[in-house]
Write a structure and sequence with these properties.
The protein is α/β, with parallel strands linked by helices. The protein is 40% helix and 25% strand. It has a single domain, classed as FAD/NAD(P)-binding domain. Helix 2 links the parallel strand 1 and strand 2 (50-54). Bound molecules: ligand 48F. Ligand 48F is lined by residues 30-36, 53-56, 61-63, 125-126, 166-168, 170, 172, 222-224, 233-235, 237-238, 241.
Length: 259
């Protein structure tokens, strides 16, 4: 026998328990694209408490769309060990180029991250940051649907020791911190510089350099890192996104260990 209200109670109680248990965490990641998911996986692997907020109903960012909705992604040799670790199938295309199904990569990475203990809350947008004591202390969140409906709904707040901006091209957390804190970001202009046009070779190279702390306790990874520092976009080559997420995780791991 199935009771409809028991089904509702199971969903509501489980969701609220997970949300309440994660009001405070080690790291909040804004954006569940390839870079954010990868960062979350490696941080959880190190034993930290990690929460991801994703604006869209389904996680994955630009990954499922591959290149112009051809649902394949290309990765380079350097990042293949990551896909091997997760168990994603790759096909050798030619020297230094591998192809993977964008859907399989998303499905496997999502599953691996959740199995490691990452808490992913989808359909929730990060709309502001908690800034005091000269650093970022967490994020301000709201239902994406409330924004779409243009409802005047006040948000809620989640606290963490570190925040990662993995929001992709728009670099939304960096933008809001720059606009509202009155402080300079750690860029040459003190602000978000904005991404340059497509150039895969240069964009992928510079991405790892740009993956770093941009405001006290705020790190940036993935396409947001190139947007913040004025790096090139690189289109449907995804190796750099994964390596950037891994690098952000490694840097934050060191900081959390030294606390
Ligand atoms: O855009 P996205 O995939 O960023 P990424 O992880 O990867 C970039 C590639 O997809 C591609 C590329 C490859 O070479 O250039 O563009 O850097 O994922 C960003 C995710 O963040 C979500 C958004 O819905 C997407 O899933 N997002 C954006 N703004 C917010 C957000 C926000 N304010 N709050 C929560 N999630």
């Amino acid at each position: 026998m199935l009771d409809d209200v028991v089904i509702s109670r199971a969903i509501i109680e489980s969701y609220y328990k997970e949300l309440l248990d994660n009001l405070e965490s080690d790291v909040i990641i804004s954006g569940a694209g390839p870079a954010g998911l990868c960062a979350s996986y490696f941080l959880c692997k190190e034993g930290f408490k990690v929460v991801v907020f994703e604006r869209a109903l389904r996680p994955g960012g630009g990954m499922p769309g591959g290149g112009m909705m051809f649902n394949k992604i290309v990765i380079q040799e350097e990042s293949k060990p990551l896909l091997d670790e997760w168990g994603v199938n790759t096909t050798h295309y030619k020297e230094n180029y591998y192809v993977a199904s964008s859907l399989e990569t998303l499905g496997v990475l999502l599953s691996q991250a959740i199995k490691k203990g990452v808490h992913i809350f989808n359909s929730i947008s990060v709309e502001d940051a908690l800034i005091y004591n000269d650093k970022i202390n967490g994020v301000v969140i709201n239902w994406t649907a409330a924004g779409i409906a243009n409802f005047h709904v006040d948000p809620l707040t989640m606290r963490s020791s570190f925040v990662v901006d993995a929001t992709g091209h728009a670099a939304e957390v960096a933008q809001v911190v720059s606009r509202k804190s009155g402080a300079r970001l750690f860029t040459s202009t003190g602000q978000v510089i904005g991404e340059k046009s497509m150039w895969a070779e240069k964009g992928e190279k510079i991405l790892l350099e740009n993956t770093k702390e941009i405001f006290p306790h705020l790190y940036v990874c993935g396409m947001a890192a190139n947007a913040v520092f004025g790096g090139q976009r690189m289109g449907p080559i995804f190796g750099g996104m994964f390596l950037s997420g891994q690098k952000a995780a490694q840097m934050i791991t060191q900081r959390l260990r030294n606390k």
